[in-house]
Amino acid sequence: MMEKGPPNSSEGQQGWFSARNGSGSSLDLESVVQPLALNPWDVVLCISGTIISCENAIVVVLIFHTPAFRAPTFLLIGSLATADLLAGLGLILHFAFVYFIPSGAVSLLTVGLLVTSFTASVSSLLAITIDRYLSLCNALTYYSERTVTRTYIMLILAWGASVCHGLLPVVGWNCLKEPSACSVVKPLTKSHLTVLSASFLAVLLVMLQLYVQICRIVCRHAQQIAVQRHFLASSQYVTTRKGIATLAVMLGTFASCWLPFAVYGLLGDCGRPGLCAYAALLPAAYNSLLNPVLYAFRNQELQKGLWAACCGCCPAPPCRARSPSDV
Fold first, then answer.
1. Are the beta carbons of 184 and 270 closer than 8 angstroms?
2. 121-125, 190-194, 301-305: lowest mean pLDDT where?
3. What share of the chain is helix, strand, coil (3-state, %, to 5)?
4. What backbone torsions phi and psi does residue 95 show, to the nearest 5 degrees?
5. 208-220 pLDDT, tens digit each
6. Rg of the chain, C-alpha, whole Å
7. Residues 6 or more apart in contact with residue 266 via CB below 8 angstroms
């Protein structure tokens, strides 16, 4: 339960974490009776959620309302944008329910939504990486029906696992009745947060391995082209280097955004300052802000479709299959 302080004090603030902030208030997701003092970190998260929602809503509408974007690659990008859109909405709803309609039951629902959306976002990133790797290993058979089937299977597995994780706090795997079992993210239990953090770290390791293999394949292809042409063209060298740099930026962005939260979820305790907890959560939320820039807005066909939707100055992109290596 929250500690009660004198009137008009900063104690009694309610936020994401059960850690104590600098003024000694206990940040949790339990319902309160008295009005809460506004926590600036929650305001930042709410503003970030608004930007994330607007940004990813553009991608979702563009992909799912444009017949040209029905290739497996765009479906995976659409899944990523949908997950990030739900994450942004979850941050907004969490802020609204905590400060305007405080309720422990409703907070469980918003936390479940956030767990589902962030897990689906990470799973979609893994699916995109797997798709890129398979497109390079099986370039001759990539445009077959097997690829479409594989894409739908990956999406079903990703969203199925994410929904299951999100439902766990709602159906009873929470610490509202047992405060000693609470993790740094209340009402998630320590064991649940450990599973989530370990899963994020496992995804990072798998993506690292896949990106290393992708870089090896790209370099090998560049060397084969050089042998066929008897020299290494400077343009081919520049293209290969840019491709590897792009992959490094994508993986580095994911790692820098999620590593702080994953490590804090495994090693953090409820006695640490709330500032550390928010500092670990913000980068994870900003990953949903950066994903559209890295995976959607960089694509030339999506750019043309966006311009066409905004001002009608560009023709609709051609309806043809796309390889993940082109995105």
1. yes
2. 301-305
3. 70, 5, 25
4. -60, -45
5. 999 999 988 888 7
6. 22
7. 194, 197, 198
The whole-angstrom distance between residue 189's C-alpha and the CA centroid of its chain comes to 21
User: What sign does the CA torsion over 93, 99, 105, 107 have?
Assistant: positive
Length of the chain: 327
Contact 75, 312 (CB under 8 A): no
**Cα angle 243, 249, 255; round to 5:** 140
Identify which has the larger pLDDT, 312 or 168: 168
Give pLDDT tens digits for 163-180. 999 999 888 888 878 878
How far apart (Å, rounded) are the C-alpha atoms in residues 57 and 52? 8
Domains of the chain by range and CATH? 40-322 (1.20.1070.10)
**Cis peptide bond prior to 187, omega within 30° of 0:** yes
Contact between 291 and 80 (Cβ < 8 Å): yes
Q: How far apart are the first and last CA of the chain?
A: 49
The two three-digit tokens of residue 163, written as one number: 């929904």
Angstrom distance (rounded) from CA 290 to CA 305: 20
Q: Encoding tokens for residue 94?
A: 């969490």
